Amino acid sequence: xxxxxxxxxxxxxxxxxxxxxxxxxxxxxxxxxxxxxxxxxxxxxxxxxxxxxxxxxxxxxxxxxxxxxxxxxxxxxxxxxxxxxxxxxxxxxxxxx
Amino acid sequence: xxxxxxxxxxxxxxxxxxxxxxxxxxxxxxxxxxxxxxxxxxxxxxxxxxxxxxxxxxxxxxxxxxxxxxxxxxxxxxxxxxxxxxxxxxxxxxxxxxxxxxxxxxxxxxxxxxxxxxxxxxxxxxxxxxxxxxxxxxxxxxxxxxxxxxxxxxxxxxxxxxxxxxxxxxxxxxxxxxxxxxxxxxxxxxxxxxxxxxxxxxxxxxxxxxxxxxxxxxxxxxxxxxxxxxxxxxxxxxxxxxxxxxxxxxxxxxxxxxxxxxxxxxxxxxxxxxxxxxxxxxxxxxxxxxxxxxxxxxxxxxxxxxxxxxxxxxxxxxxxxxxxxxxxxxxxxxxxxxxxxxxxxxxxxxxxxxxxxxxxxxxxxxxxxxxxxxxxxxxxxxxxxxxxxxxxxxxxxxxxxxxxxxxxxxxxxxxxxxxxxxxxxxxxxxxxxxxxxxxxxxxxxxxxxxxxxxxxxxxxxxxxxxxxxxxxxxxxxxxxxxxxxxxxxxxxxxxxxxxxxxxxxxxxxxxxxxxxxxxxxxxxxxxxxxxxxxxxxxxxxxxxxxxxxxxxxxxxxxxxxxxxxxxxxxxxxxxxxxxxxxxxxxxxxxxxxxxxxxxxxxxxxxxxxxxxxxxxxxxxxxxxxxxxxxxxxxxxxxxxxxxxxxxxxxxxxxxxxxxxxxxxxxxxxxxxxxxxxxxxxxxxxxxxxxxxxxxxxxxxxxxxxxxxxxxxxxxxxxxxxxxxxxxxxxxxxxxxxxxxxxxxxxxxxxxxxxx
Lengths: 97, 755
What we know:
The structure holds two protein chains of two kinds.
Chain A: E1 3-9, E2 14-22, E3 25-33, E4 42-48, E5 53-58, E6 63-68, E7 75-81, E8 84-89
Parallel strand pairs in A: 1-7
Antiparallel strand pairs in A: 1-4, 2-3, 2-5, 5-6, 7-8
Chain B: H1 7-13, H2 21-27, E1 50-51, H3 52-63, E2 89-93, E3 101-108, E4 117-124, E5 130-144, E6 147-159, E7 168-174, E8 183-190, E9 193-204, E10 208-217, E11 226-228, E12 243-245, H4 246-252, E13 255-259, E14 265-266, H5 279-289, E15 300-306, E16 317-318, E17 330-334, H6 349-368, H7 412-418, H8 426-434, H9 437-440, E18 465-470, E19 477-478, E20 485-492, E21 498-501, E22 511-517, E23 522-525, E24 537-540, E25 545-551, E26 554-555, E27 558-559, E28 565-575, E29 578-589, H10 595-604, H11 607-615, H12 622-634, H13 639-649, E30 656-661, E31 668-673, H14 677-688, H15 691-698, H16 700-716, H17 720-736, H18 741-754
Parallel strand pairs in B: 10-13, 10-14, 10-15, 15-17, 19-29
Antiparallel strand pairs in B: 1-5, 2-3, 2-9, 3-4, 4-5, 5-6, 6-7, 7-8, 8-9, 11-12, 16-17, 18-20, 20-25, 21-24, 22-23, 22-28, 26-27, 28-29, 30-31
Helix pairs in contact in B: 10-12, 11-12, 11-13, 12-13, 13-14, 13-15, 14-16, 15-16, 16-17, 17-18
């Protein structure tokens, strides 16, 4: 049964185009720029099922990462750190201020 | 949308409302120094020097324990028999006689959380020159009861180094028979030798004054402006118990912080139909409800206590004002965020929530002081951030600071609050207190640029002068490709005569100008040339003005007006130590009218063409000259063709020198090119065939200057007759266009001399 998964693009984005796909099906395209006062660039809500693969791609940087959705996942964070794209599930709610 | 409230109307309309007026009274900063230190024993002058700031630093937390902050005490009892009174605060040096330098000195040795710094802002009254230095204290001595001397080494410079020579500064406080210091002085030294000494006047125990206005949305609950530090048991064991106010937090950071009495309740309708807040709605609300809203820097900010952001409960607070030339003026807290939900196992949930709200409130205000998150301090351009730190900084991921995320430290929020003392880190305090003030002041430097963590510069309103920018044409409409020429008028708006640097509007140093394409980003215009002229003042009577014109479409960093659309332009002029801000000029650039213009645009909006339009199409700019020739040939009726024609002709009106490569690999040869007779005819045609069109697009100042130069060139070449024709046409056109009488007289005198 599909449920929602929040994809939080957080630190390191400076206006790059981002493509998000679920099981190779592109479901979102947007430009992401981190607002430094929040540490947050963009929140995209995806409809997924456990076991599906979420892929985040930043074509201009040649970066692409995939993550297999687990049962308990409700938030997936994406950060650009040291020229790497890091996807990591959050264990609880993620706040910004 | 309701009108923006005014300070007066709000004061009178809301007596007894939830304002923090009572807390203002309780927390109002005071510049009084009475009772600020211990009762030392008077000793003889021969008492050995003792380190004063060591005692001050050790004792300062005690001074934080109750109510409003107290500077000092400066001496641990029993250790130092010399009474060394506190000196932290702001001092000024006002020039006397013909002197032109002004100083503001911030001494930080015994304020709460002393940072052992002396920072100095210097400016010259007659020019744009300004400098800022920060010096680190190396010695702080009580030489006797009546004399305290603090020596510091310069560790940071910004601005003109000539204004603040020396590598060491010495601050001295002394007295004769009084109980507090009366005499203050600053000495600059090079290699230990004193070179200049300035007497100072005490101005304030705080480094700057700042006002917070807190408005709340009707559904957001009461703002938490105070917190009882003992209300939650998870705290440092030795944390003083007190009811800590928001203003006290910032007073301890060195600011005379006050709450505005104009806080108000905002209807939920301001958030739009969805009842949550977007950045645009927050900005609109700030414009509408903040009693001190202004498009200029101020030591003031607006805080909105709202319920929920558009992004939902994830967002606990936001400094939302990060677009446009004036940023960091507004922030918001969202009381329904999950960030304020206490942990399920916390039995003091209400206190936990109050503490988190108070902490994030101070945190968001910290962003308006241009402070980054503790874990982002080192971010700079290289990491994709919009600016670099003001000095190289290290991240402080474990800092127990308002600017950190409690949940991100090792051990999470519980570990954070077990060791949190409701303060900013030392690094942040150095920035807030001692960085160049434009980096810190709200509405000044852009968010995260030179963060504590340069773009728009100091923009401070000053009513003695009035700066006006205008297109000098009936409608602010420009054709595609037409360079935008703006006229600047700086008028003495006071009731007294006043002197100003005659080159204020023209030398490229005093002016700052921003251009924003609506819906796009803001860019700073930088002149193609900056001149270092001998400073000459001109005295203006009340109402008199100086004028200048600049082509602002192109700048030394590229074209800023190169697309159709609406643009907003605003300028600031540095007059003495202050900045005078202009009106905002809104102009419209029409779309291209032909494929011909579209094709030309590709070659036209280049750096070389921009330079050719400003300086003339010299031989070195041959490609630009070709483009301008095409423009004149293909679009002769367009306004841009006038600019192109004069740019092509003007360099050839006089003999010119060219520096070229010589026969050898290291040879350079200066060649002289004679003036081209046909250039004068071309220039005359461009300027006088359709004088109104030419004057409209070039602007009066440039247009009549060009006619004047043309007449001079003709006269120098022996063609007096044509020169007279040009000047006659100039005078006729001036009269027809209602040019200032004094300008017409000058032109008439030149014409008369030709007869």
